[in-house]
Amino acid sequence: MAKQFLLSNLIAAITFCCVVLAFEPSPLQDFCVADPASPARVNGLACKDLKSVKADDFFFGGLHLAGNTTNAVGSKVTPVNVAQIPGLNTLGISLVRVDYAPWGINPPHTHPRATEILTVLEGTLQVGFVTSSPENRHITKVLKKGDAFVFPIGLVHYQHNVGYGNAVAIAALSSQNPGVIGMANAVFGSDPAIATDVLAKAFQVDESVAALMQSKF
């Protein structure tokens, strides 16, 4: 009986350790300013020499400037992640500014490495995300100035300006490099392309429709 108890405890401890080790560890130094030129291959970017670190490694200017929304979707995302601020490397946080033309959208997409919390600065946005299969539940809400909304990590989400004027939002993400996968771009604009017959069967449309969609991307 004692052996079974010890074995159960050992299995539980191993399981707990494996779960804990599955998460990115906390930084072991004050900061690790990214060095994109380094040949080192790590989960993230290698650190530059501390002697060469400067204030600009932690700085980004221009978030007060409106993005150009004269495009097919009527929105512009201005990212502020490790690519723009090298000092964000290993710190697990970033943000974006999103500008929306009247009735513009930030199309359905996912962030594979981050949860997002979005705050509306100006305008009115309908936002939503879809839960995983098999439920595929659409959770949506209309936000006004000062409202905030959370998009859980990895789930498909979007924003739609439902007002007659421009809208602006700021979003924080729980990764210095959250990544973004646009649903339409990924499916219809992959390189090399997904076979048309596969897309036709997946979306239950004629192959000519699938081919037309691919031509758009």
From TrEMBL:
Binding site for oxalate: 106, 111, 116
Keywords, alphabetical: Apoplast, Disulfide bond, Manganese, Metal-binding, Secreted, Signal
GO cellular component assignments: apoplast
Pfam families xref list: Cupin_1
A GO term for molecular function: manganese ion binding
Entry-linked InterPro entries: Cupin_1 (IPR006045), Germin (IPR001929), Germin_Mn-BS (IPR019780), RmlC-like_jellyroll (IPR014710), RmlC_Cupin_sf (IPR011051)
Signal sequence region: 1-22
Record field: transmembrane: none
Compartments where found: Secreted, Extracellular space, Apoplast
Disulfide bonds: 32-47
Binding site residues for Mn(2+): 109, 111, 116, 157
Superkingdom field: Eukaryota
Domain called Cupin type-1: residue spans: 70-211
Family: Belongs to the germin family.
Cross-referenced PANTHER family: GERMIN-LIKE PROTEIN SUBFAMILY 3 MEMBER 3
UniProt-recorded name of the protein: Germin-like protein
Protein source organism: Nicotiana sylvestris
Gene designation per UniProt: LOC104214384
